[in-house]
Amino acid sequence: MNNETTPTLSPARWYVVTILALVYALNIADRYVVSTVLEPIRKEFALSDTGVGWLTGVSLAFFYIIAGLPIARYADRGNRRNIVAVALVTWSGMTALLGMTQNFWQFLLARIGVGIGEAGCTPPSTSIIADNFPRGRRAFALTLWALGLPLGAWLGSSVAGAIVDHFHSWRAAFIALGVPGVLFGAIILFTVREPVRGRFELRGRTDDAATFVETCRFLWTQRSAWHINAAGAVICLWGWGMLFWMQTYFERAYGLSTSEAGARLGTIYFWAGTLATIATGALLALPQMQDVKRIAWFLSAIVILSTIPSFLIFWTHSLSVATAMLWIVIPCVYLYMGPTMALLLNFLPPTMRAQGMAISLLAANVCNLIVAPTVVGWISDTLAPRLGSNAESLRYALLALSLTGFWAGYHYLTSVRTFDSDDVRLGHPGKLA
């Protein structure tokens, strides 16, 4: 058994975090590129806003969910490194295949393949990191891992937009972003080691994974984990739901081209997201922030305060004001990822981590890939005849979505109430750190 005094700065551990962050960046890039080319796809396939939500969001999420749970079940007992490598090759190959599709059904089938592949990324990756760092350092390590978010968003927005502009084809962006992931899979297989499961835990170090039912039952009774999971899901509805439509909204509302909107948004995603993630990592590295209650309070305050400028993005008719508000909101959307995952992992036994993370991602992806695309699209389609503009109808739909940030803040605040009792239940008496 190891403890909190075990050195955490060995190069091998940080190499693992770096490599898995790059994997995450490719994951996000392959997902973001769809939002970047959403409008060209909608026009070529003659889709409504609801239809494009089903094609690009629901198709990914549904099969992500179906594949995610059995993959996570295996990750709690098998080799997680191999799962990540195979998943990376799968979703990257399918992303490249998206660039070769010629109709709605071909695109749908390839998008389903992307969803199945992406299901093997985050649960095993975060479980690997959790077994490389003690409890008090996981929030810091996972925040650095989350740097893959802004990097991937930049690749999927600015780089993808430039590729579309250069080749005059939305298909080129998928091919350019998909091929590198196939090659990167070999790096994972040959350079990342599978860590000992549960190496830093006081109890629960075993190779016998819990069943899915046992994991669900535990999450339901572990109230702190339940509220953390709910907070993360609602943030995905709020933040990633807005970002799913942001490129399309800027093109419609302000007449920007695909490359112009992609460059504007990608710059914000990269710089604001990166700086916010680094600053959050530095904050979480402080001794005082190893108290997880402070992390939950910090996340609650950030999301509640940033909900106001998120509303103003769609309230204003000024491109300059909307851009300025994005510089405030984007960091808040990005910085929650690592700390929230660390909070959840800290309240799960080692034998439930991958499945617990898969359940968390199931809720998150239902919110940001099913509810946000389809409900926002449906509201937009419903209002468009009355408002006489699909730009204005999308604006009102996104105004409603922006207010859900307050809901996420409530769950972070509520989770703190049972931190102490739930920590004792895991066999870690005393103040959790």
Task: Break the fold down into its secondary structure elements and pairings.
Blueprint: H1 11-36, H2 38-44, H3 49-75, H4 80-98, H5 104-118, H6 122-130, H7 135-145, H8 148-167, H9 170-191, H10 212-221, H11 223-254, H12 258-284, H13 292-315, H14 319-335, H15 337-346, H16 353-387, H17 390-402, H18 405-415, H19 419-425
Q: What can you tell me about this protein's structure?
A:
With 433 residues, this protein is an all-alpha fold. The protein is built from 19 helices and no strands. The longest helix has 35 residues, at 353-387. It is globular, with a radius of gyration of 21 Å. The relative contact order is 0.16.
Considering the chains and any ligands shown, give keywords for the structure.
disordered N terminus; single chain; 433 residues; mainly alpha
The average pLDDT is 87
Percent of residues in helical segments? Answer: over 70%
* Element-by-element helix/strand order: HHHHHHHHHHHHHHHHHHH
Largest sheet: none
Q: Rg to the nearest angstrom?
A: 21 Å
Q: Runs with pLDDT <50, length 5+?
A: 1-8
Quaternary state of the chains: single chain
- Count the E strands: 0
| Termini Cα gap | 17 Å
Shape designation: globular
Helix vs. strand class: mainly alpha
Beta-strand portion reads: under 5%
How many helices does DSSP assign? Answer: 19
Give a short overview.
This protein has 433 residues and is mainly α.
